[in-house]
Structure formats: C-alpha cells, structure tokens
Amino acid sequence: MENKGLLIILSGPSGVGKGTVRKHIMADRSLNLKYSISMTTREPRPKEKDGRDYFFVTDEVFEQNIKDGNFLEWAEFVGHKYGTPRDKVEELRNSGYNVFLEIETSGAAQVIKAVGDDPGLVTIFLMPPSIEALEARIRNRKWEKEEVIQSRLAKGRVEIESADLYQYTVLNDYVQRSAWEIRHIIRTRMAELNGDEKPIVE
Ligand code: 5GP
What we know:
Helices cover 41% and strands 20% of the residues. It is α/β, with parallel strands linked by helices. It has a 5-stranded parallel β-sheet with strand order 2-7-1-8-9, with helices on both faces. A 4-stranded mixed β-sheet has the order 4-3-6-5. A hairpin with a 2-residue loop joins strand 5 and strand 6. Helix 1 (18-26) packs across helix 7 and helix 5 runs antiparallel to helix 6. The structure holds guanosine-5'-monophosphate. Residues 14, 18, 38, 42, 73-75, 77, 82-84, 102-104, 107 line the site of guanosine-5'-monophosphate. Guanosine-5'-monophosphate binds at residues 14, 18, 38, 42, 73-75, 77, 82-84, 102-104, 107.
C-alpha cells in the first residue's frame, strides 16, 4: 500500500505572497503535491476561476456544508467564509499525495487541535519582511476598496501574532529563497514519515 501523504498547511497575512510561493512549490513535481481547493462565499477576483482557485458558493450552500459536517475546518475572514472540504483531503492523502492547504490562522488552529498529533501534519507560517512591505503589497492590489485593505491589514497584524502555533516560520524575503526553504521542509518531512535518511540539500 502507498504511504499516507503529508497534510501541509501554509498560512501568513494577506499580501505576504502565499499564492506566489505556493505556485513555485507546486511546480516541483517531485514533491507529489495536490492543492486543496477551498470553498468560499467571496466574489471571484479578476482571473480567478471557479473550481481552480476556489469553489465560489452562496452563503446558503456554505451553511449547508457546515451542517453536513463537510469541512475539515472553516473560518470567517474579513466578511466572508472559507472552508476546506474534508473528504477530498482524506482521499488524496490516502492515495499517497501530499495535500497542500493555504488557509488563515484560525482554520489552521482548528486542524492543529483536531489532528495535531498526526506525524504527517506540517504547519508553516510565511512571514513578511516588514509590516511596511505587507502594506505596500496589499495596496498594489487595485481591485480592493480602502476599507477592505484596512481590514486585511488589521487581520494580518493579528495573524502574525499566531506564528508561534506553527512548526516552521519562513521569511518571505525573496520568493525563490522562501520557496526553496519550504520545499526543503517538505522533503525532510516526507523522508521522516517514510523512515528514510534525511534528504541531501539541493
Ligand atoms: P483571499 O480572499 O485572499 O483569497 O483569502 C483570504 C484568507 O483566507 C487567506 O489568508 C487565505 O489563505 C484564507 N483561506 C483560503 N481558503 C481557506 C480555507 O479553506 N479555510 C480557511 N480557514 N482559510 C482559507
């Protein structure tokens, strides 16, 4: 039988660059990763696609999924709900894939509470080089209103205080470097889970 895959959680404040780092990591086929597509009640942004970036659903559909116990975790973030479909994660891990979740801190806390002793759980917090850099990045997103930007910044400051919850903190100073560090963490944990020697540094 295949070994069960890792459950990798990446969190970090809005604007830190999680999406860009994630794309670099997902491009490494040797890591055997599958991205867990979340469900959300927020509107799609330009270029976002239903079923690829998120499953965009109504409040009613989201509520029904909560009632049916379909989420591994879910949370409210700046006025919208976001949740991780439970079955898909389990199915992929059981098939030997390493499942990658990009979620905010209160959802991560729920997963840590539920399955914190799972040796396959890998939790990583992506840290911005400074609050100023974070603000500049959020302001670069032209599609959001000032009040949303302010709420995301305020939430980001609170999220940074939760970094201690995570097994690893990675500084996102340069995308290539932080993606390399995260790939190394994943490789190390894959080797540990399979009882192999530690991987040789790339
Ligand atoms: P955004 O609106 O920028 O796509 O996402 C807002 C925040 O929600 C980000 O921190 C993102 O990582 C997080 N998020 C996305 N999907 C989920 C999910 O399924 N659960 C939780 N708890 N957070 C999520």
